[in-house]
Design brief:
about 170 residues, alpha+beta
């Protein structure tokens, strides 16, 4: 009777593990991002795949005097990293954003420009979900910021000899 209970316990554990394995695969970033299923978050011309949910505590938006917005938003979802980046590239192009730089790897990044705005999208696969950050800001005009004379950092005086001997 005891061996039957052990067998039943082991069988139930295996059944639970296999069931969790099927559920976990969609949670841990194996899904694909749809370019059609999107929603508009803080920035009206940046569609976000519906599988990505905003992480509100990591969002900071500023309303500029001209009515535009700038800031950052964080998202997470059960989407495969490269699928997410493909969907974001497609959606940004559809909204008139011009790609300026793209890097794909374990941590991917894309930079875009549209009128007087720049957008940076970064993403990586986290432990439980794919993480994505979106940064949007006004473009700085060429020559608006120039290098100024920067004071030299403070350097400690050079001590000659063994400073311990002088004690």
């Amino acid at each position: 009777m005891r061996s039957f209970a052990s067998f039943l316990g082991a069988f139930l554990c295996l059944a639970l593990l296999s069931a969790c394995g099927g559920v976990g695969s969609s949670v841990f970033g194996s899904g694909t991002a749809s370019v059609e299923a999107t929603y508009i978050s803080e920035f009206a011309d940046i569609p976000i795949p519906r599988d990505m949910k905003e992480v509100a505590k990591q969002t900071a938006i500023v309303h500029n005097p001209d009515g535009s917005k700038a800031g950052s938003q964080a998202f997470e979802g059960g989407v495969e990293l490269q699928s997410l980046m493909n969907a974001m590239l497609y959606n940004m192009l559809q909204q008139g954003w011009k790609p300026r730089s793209i890097f794909r790897g374990p941590r991917s990044a894309m930079a875009f420009e549209k009128e007087n705005n720049v957008a940076l999208i970064t993403a990586f696969e986290g432990a439980f979900a794919t993480q994505m950050s979106l940064w949007v800001a006004k473009r700085i005009n060429d020559g608006a910021l120039e290098a100024r004379d920067v004071p030299q950092p403070f350097l400690a005086p050079v001590l000659e000899g063994n400073p311990i001997e002088s004690l």
